[in-house]
Design brief:
The structure holds two protein chains of two kinds. Helix content of chain A is 51%, strand content 21%. Chain A has helices at 2-21, 97-103, 107-126, 144-163, 179-249, 253-268; strands at 22-25, 29-35, 38-43, 47-50, 58-63, 67-69, 74-77, 83-94, 165-176, 274-278. In chain A, the strands form three sheets. In chain A, strands 6, 7, 8 and 9 form a four-stranded antiparallel beta sheet that branches. Chain A has a three-stranded antiparallel beta sheet with strand order 3-2-5, with helices on one face. A two-stranded antiparallel ribbon of chain A has the order 1-4. The N and C termini of chain A lie far apart (187 Å). By secondary structure, chain B is of the alpha+beta class. In chain B, the strands form three sheets. In chain B, strands 6, 7, 8 and 9 form a four-stranded antiparallel beta sheet that branches. Chain B has a three-stranded antiparallel beta sheet with strand order 3-2-5. In chain B, strands 1-4 form a two-stranded antiparallel sheet. Chain B is rod-shaped. The chains are: A alpha+beta, B alpha+beta. Chains A and B meet through strand 6, strand 8, strand 9, helix 5 and helix 6 of A and strand 7, helix 3, helix 4, helix 7 and helix 8 of B.
């Protein structure tokens, strides 16, 4: 009975000691074991590990996942003296746990230092580029990715040596102009659109006048053609009429002349005509005594 | 005696109580042990996947839905990740919005700047994008990247900046939207994988893309100008069609008139000559009489019509009037 109780107590103490000398590291952690503040071991493999129990060895856990943060937006000058404001995002992770642990210790300090570093690099690197290498409708001329790569490489060298950090990714996530330049961009956009609108309206006017001129040309062409055909037809009619008359009248020209003259007289002699006729005329030959001799100089019929 | 007895009774009772308790303890210990082991049962729901960790070390990256058993705490731990759940969020970092909690307002308060993205031809463009995503890799989701949602937003912003920087504004605002959407998805996905977020974008929608509001009306006017251009053209075309049709009609009428003139001319010639020929055949029979008769007919008809007809007689063989002068009509 007493033996049993003793066994239990010994077992309990043993479990406590074991529990205090075993620690686990999970997949997102790295452990640095310090003995009275002195780092003695680094554990990167996830799973259970041994250590000296209790206060003899302390486990410092670091987060080895990829962290993201944004340094402050940075205003800088391009090579062509254009001011521009850029914001980056930075992804980093611990590369050398011991360096990181000794130089920085916490994530907040790491991001502060790294942010300053990236912004300094950004300012340097962008001094080599002009605006048309940042934005351009010719995709081959845009060097944004190249800029990101350069900043990444240069920051990486320094970050690894000084802080034990690895910069995984740097991306430019915003590009803007200072307020005055933004205003200038807006104004240029406005005048560009105005020009474009004017151009369309001018094109419309031009196209319309071309269409109308073409129509007018067609109209006069159609009219000319029609007039020509009409005259030809009329001419045919005249020709035919002349031919018919010629054939008929040539059979008895003297009769035609006589009839035609009569017709002409008919037309000439209107109501208001004053006609003076001699009694000697043939017409009135029966009006006077029959023995009256007819004047010599009389026209045959009148 | 009595006291002895009673003392003995108490001792006996205590003994038996301890005996009972001891027997009972076994059951309690057994129950506690059973209860402890029963904590190892866990279920993964249909829209989840599990990641199983044994003493910090992941032993199963993909535990599928169902009932499972593992050693209870502190030996193992199970993470449940909702892999089939659609998450979505709005990226409005380049979209002016006056609400105090909008991204544009936050950025404005920080820097005093307006929110927009730049196009390749140096125009400001505002864009709002909705991203729908799921967790596709539970292991990376849990142990890859720390700030997944922040990173997702940053990556989308980066891709927007990069894609717009190479396109002219007119394409971006009109025909380029679909291409933009697709590139945004593929490029952002590549970055998400590189940074081990464990997320998969399955849809990107451009909710709105527009020029800044102070410039908007100028863009609208360009659209109106295009419409005006077409209007001018179609007005001219309808004028042309009308004029040509009208002229065709006029031309036809002229030709019709001409042919009716021709018909009339020939018909009247035929009429005239028929009459003439008829007369001629009479005339041939008795020329002189016919001629005289025609003449008298004329005189009767024509002279009677005249208002003033004077008959002049000769006196002593001399005409009183010089008949060479005839008064005009």
């Amino acid at each position: 009975m007493k033996k049993f109780t003793l066994l239990l107590i010994v077992l309990g103490i043993l479990i406590c000691v074991i529990a205090l000398s075993i620690f686990t590291v999970n997949e997102k952690e790295i452990a640095i074991i310090t003995r009275f503040g002195d780092p003695v071991r680094i554990v990167t493999k996830a799973g259970p590990h041994r250590k000296l129990p209790g206060f003899l060895e302390k486990v410092n856990l670091l987060d080895k996942r990829i962290h993201t943060f944004k340094p402050r937006p940075l205003q800088l000058m391009l090579k062509d003296q254009n001011p521009i404001i850029m914001t980056c995002y930075v992804c980093w992770q611990i590369a050398d746990p011991l360096d990181f642990f000794q130089a920085l210790g916490t994530q907040n300090i790491a991001e502060e230092k790294l942010g300053d570093m990236v912004n300094a690099r950004l300012g340097n690197v962008l001094g080599d580029y002009i605006l048309s290498q940042i934005i351009n409708i010719d995709a081959d001329k845009v060097k944004l990715s190249e800029i990101e790569k350069r900043i990444l490489m240069e920051s990486n060298d320094q970050a690894r040596n000084q802080y034990g950090l690895k910069v995984v990714d740097i991306g430019i996530r915003r590009i803007t102009y200072p307020s005055t330049n933004t205003e200038a961009v807006y104004n240029r956009m406005k005048s560009d659109r105005e020009t474009e609108a004017k151009k369309y309206r001018a094109e419309g006017g031009e196209a319309a006048s071309i269409i109308e001129a073409e129509a007018d040309r067609q109209v006069s062409e159609i009219l000319a053609e029609a007039s020509k055909n009409a005259e030809i037809t009329k001419g045919e009619g005249d020709k035919e009429a002349i031919k018919i008359r010629g054939e008929a009248y040539s059979q008895a020209p003297e009769l035609f002349e006589f009839l035609d003259s009569l017709d002409t007289y008919r037309k000439i002699l209107g109501r208001e005509t004053t006609l003076i006729l001699s009694l000697d005329s043939n017409l009135f030959r029966y009006l006077l005594p029959e023995d009256r001799e007819i004047g010599k100089n009389n026209v045959e019929d009148l | 005696m009595i006291q002895n007895n009673s003392n003995q009774d108490v001792t006996n009772e205590l003994k038996s109580a301890i005996k009972h308790t001891r027997r009972f303890m076994k059951w309690i210990v057994l129950a506690v042990v059973l209860f402890y082991f029963s904590l190892g049962f866990y279920t993964i729901k249909a829209n989840e996947e599990g990641v199983l960790e044994w003493m910090g070390h992941v032993v199963d990256k993909r535990v599928l839905p169902g009932l499972h058993y593992t050693f209870p705490w502190p030996f193992s731990r199970i993470y449940k990740v909702p892999v089939k759940k659609d998450e979505s969020f709005v990226v409005a970092d380049f979209y002016q919005d006056t609400r105090p909690d909008s991204r544009a307002s936050i950025f404005y308060n920080l820097t005093g700047l307006e929110s927009y993205a730049l196009s390749g031809d140096n125009n400001a463009v505002e864009i709002k994008v909705i991203v729908q995503y799921r967790i596709s890799d539970p292991f990376n989701y849990l142990f890859g990247a720390a700030q997944k949602n922040t990173l997702l937003r940053d990556i989308i912003c980066r891709e927007i900046i990069h894609l717009l920087a190479v396109q002219p504004v007119d394409i971006i605002l009109t025909s380029g939207k679909d291409a933009l959407k697709n590139h945004l998805q593929t490029n952002a996905q590549r970055k998400l994988n590189e940074n081990k977020t464990g997320l998969t974008i399955h849809r990107v929608d451009i909710e709105d893309i527009r020029p800044p509001s102070s410039v908007q009306s100028y863009f609208d006017d360009v659209i109106n100008a295009k419409i005006d251009k077409e209007k001018m053209k179609s007005r001219a075309e309808s004028y042309a069609n009308e004029e040509i049709a009208r002229t065709r009609g006029e031309g036809n009428r002229k030709i019709q008139e001409a042919s009716s003139y021709r018909d009339k001319a020939t018909q009247s010639a035929i009429g005239e000559t028929t009459r003439f020929l008829a007369l001629l055949s009479e005339y041939r029979k008795v020329p002189l009489i016919t001629r005289k008769r025609l003449y008298l007919e004329f005189a009767r008809e024509c002279l009677s019509r005249l208002k003033n007809t004077y008959l002049v007689d000769r006196k002593d063989g001399v005409n009183p009037v010089d008949l060479h002068i005839l008064p005009g009509t």
